[in-house]
UniProtKB/TrEMBL annotation:
Belongs to the N-acetylmuramoyl-L-alanine amidase 2 family. Coiled coil: none annotated. It comes from the Bacteria. NCBIfam families: Por_Secre_tail (TIGR04183). InterPro entries: Amidase/PGRP_sf, Amidase_domain, PGRP, PGRP_domain_met/bac, Secre_tail. It comes from Fulvivirga kasyanovii. The lineage of its organism: Bacteria, Pseudomonadati, Bacteroidota, Cytophagia, Cytophagales. This is T9SS type A sorting domain-containing protein.
């Protein structure tokens, strides 16, 4: 009898191990799907996997939900870019392959699908170009090509569409701020977008890492990188270009290196397409959409993170400052005084028959201003209707548009 019992045990153990090590259903070359049921406040263990990132399709609430790997907790947040059925968490990316994790469900309940991604790696450590401080600020910045970061992964194959850019939309990837292998991050985002979301390609035109490295995003094929239509702006992507800052910027700001690369990229694009960094260009989602806008300006989302969104005015100004240094001719200037201005400011008019003035606040909102007095070639303006703060004065003199910073004090 004892002999039969040992035989039965030996037969059952492999079955139990096989159930625990179930790697899930394959849904893409680098992606598998594990299915389970969950209730609020539970803890579930997953083993026998090989993952460089994880996302979870869920029901209920993410309040208190997180995954734990080797004692480290990764809070789960909702992916606002996902447009399929149900709800999905943002991608949790790891610097090294993991083989097990625990899911703490928080408010998650019902059917749960765990997306397991194994992005592999490039053959050699990536020596990506960085932002060169001595580089011509007017030139197209250096960036990492798809053929470098996508090495070994399936290439996208579809008929690309292209658009004229009227609005540049800023995003954040909502991935961890602690990962250091930025090539791995973009590889996982690409797989997630294509093999899990079912998109044709990665959603953004460009992605910028915390060290300032710029990656080319959606593959334009034989077209141009900056005008291929992506999948990033609330389902209405025509006339937009998408730029994603790698990381989560709800509570911490993007790095100085990220912002420097972003400003250079935007200045190159704005100069190329004659876009006004402080301008407004209507879009089907927002009749007053800034030329440089955040994802949340189009639909209800946290993206690009509060700390990024609060810096959009600085980003517009930095872009405009870079653009002012570009061009073959010396930029036109005009005299603006006093600056700072307390109750009035004056402009020395240039030699032209027409003069138009628009004052932009740091949100990018325009205000047409008119002089209350023009005498001896000097136009005088009142500041009484404006709150204290930093503004950009656009002076259209004939065919020339010139910009100057104006500070208004109490």
């Amino acid at each position: 009898m004892r002999q039969y019992l040992w035989v039965l045990i030996l037969l059952i153990i492999p079955l139990l191990a096989g159930a625990q090590q179930d790697r899930g259903r394959k849904i893409g070359a680098n992606t598998r799907l594990l299915q389970t049921k969950a209730g609020p406040g539970q803890s579930q263990s997953f083993t026998g996997i090989e993952a460089t990132s994880i996302a979870i399709k869920y029901q209920g609430s993410l309040d208190g939900a997180y995954i734990e790997v080797d004692g480290k907790e990764y809070p789960l947040t909702r992916d606002d870019h996902y447009s399929g059925e149900g709800k999905v968490t943002n991608l949790v990316v790891f610097d090294a392959v993991i083989t097990q994790f625990q899911l703490f469900t928080g408010g998650i309940t019902g059917e749960v699908e765990v997306v397991i991604i194994d992005a592999g790696s490039v053959k050699d450590p990536l020596k990506a170009p960085r932002l060169n401080k001595q580089q011509d600020e007017c030139a197209k910045p250096e960036m990492v090509d798809q053929s470098v970061w996508r090495e070994g992964l399936p290439e996208p194959s579809y008929n690309r569409s292209f658009t004229v850019t009227e609005n540049i939309i800023i995003h954040h990837s909502a991935t961890s701020n602690n990962v250091e292998d930025y090539t791995n991050v973009i590889r996982n985002i690409y797989i997630y977008h294509t093999q899990s979301n079912g998109w044709s390609d990665i959603g953004y035109n460009y992605l910028i890492a915390p060290d300032g490295t710029i990656f080319k995003g959606r593959d334009p094929g034989s077209g141009e990188q900056d005008v291929v239509i992506g999948a990033h702006f609330c389902g209405k992507n025509s006339t937009t270009m998408g730029v994603c800052l790698m990381g989560t910027y709800t509570q911490i700001p993007p790095s100085d290196e990220t912002l420097a690369s972003l400003s250079q990229l935007l200045a190159w694009k704005a100069e190329k397409d004659e876009l006004d960094p402080f301008g407004i260009d209507p879009h089907p989602l927002n009749a007053s959409l800034p030329v440089i806008a955040g994802h949340r300006d189009g639909c209800s989302t946290e993206c690009p993170g509060q700390e990024t969104y609060e810096r959009l005015s600085e980003i517009r100004y930095a872009t405009a400052e870079t653009m002012e240094t570009c061009g073959d001719e010396e930029p036109l200037v005009f005299t603006l005084f006093p600056n700072p201005a307390e109750s009035y400011f004056k402009v020395e008019l240039l030699n032209s028959e027409t003069h138009k003035f628009v004052l932009y606040d740091m949100r990018g909102l325009p205000f047409n201003v008119h002089p209350y007095l023009v005498q001896d070639g000097i136009a005088s303006f009142s500041t009484g209707d404006f709150a204290a703060g930093l503004y950009i004065l656009h002076y259209q003199s004939g065919s020339e548009l010139i910009k100057r910073r104006l500070i208004i004090t109490d």
